[in-house]
Amino acid sequence: MQKRSLGDQPCPVARTLDVIGEWWTLVIVRDAFRGARRFEDFRAVGIADNILSARLKKLVAEGVFERRRYQEHPERFEYVLTEKGRDLLMVLGALGLWGQRWTRGPDTTSITHEECGHRVSLRAWCDECARPIDLSEIRMPRMIQPSVPAAG
Amino acid sequence: MQKRSLGDQPCPVARTLDVIGEWWTLVIVRDAFRGARRFEDFRAVGIADNILSARLKKLVAEGVFERRRYQEHPERFEYVLTEKGRDLLMVLGALGLWGQRWTRGPDTTSITHEECGHRVSLRAWCDECARPIDLSEIRMPRMIQPSVPAAG
């Protein structure tokens, strides 16, 4: 299936999905946070080699990973998250928290607060008011007016 | 391309991606937050009808949307986010914030704090310590040991 690009949409959600929204991509990024650096580390999750190659190539082109040579003969490379890539931690955190609440299965990836050892969550936050805010305090622009029922 | 399921992985990130990780799915969910309810609302973004049908069907089966009949002759349905679906707002927020920082283009979807009108961000938060925490205070389990370089 040819994928239509989302990169030209006037929305940062769509443009982000254009970079990291392909199947497997966020699993690869997750594994990088867990310590994966080399091709064989990333393939351990069960991804096919040709897909993994294509995803890594795109992520390097997008600046999410930096490709570094770690061996000369034969040449071998490892993939290290850039600042842009490390900044995806919030995305992974949000996905993980949703999955903890709404899917069933073991969780071997809990993210904890180093100081106290408790699990980290995410809160919506207002920099201006310097406090966490509830979802009920959020205003979202209503871009789409629901359609009027068609006559007949 | 046949997609391998991520639903049986011992990781809530992977299981979440199994539910909402297909191309277009989060764009559909985003549009629901912006007011889309009906098939013609969702297709406005440019998604092909057959893909939209398949995505909505899966999201209803997963309990992200509830399908409600709004007209009898002919029967027509609209798609309303459930609590499970509304809980994806954090995921969309994280994607949007990353896109604001790391992609270029207009942003017509800013989420603001109703009370003060300023933009909402996301912070990692420790419930135990009742305070926002920096990424440097987070501990993540290192599941994958980097491979030892192959001899030769």
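qc> The longest helix of chain A spans residues 89-102.
qc> done
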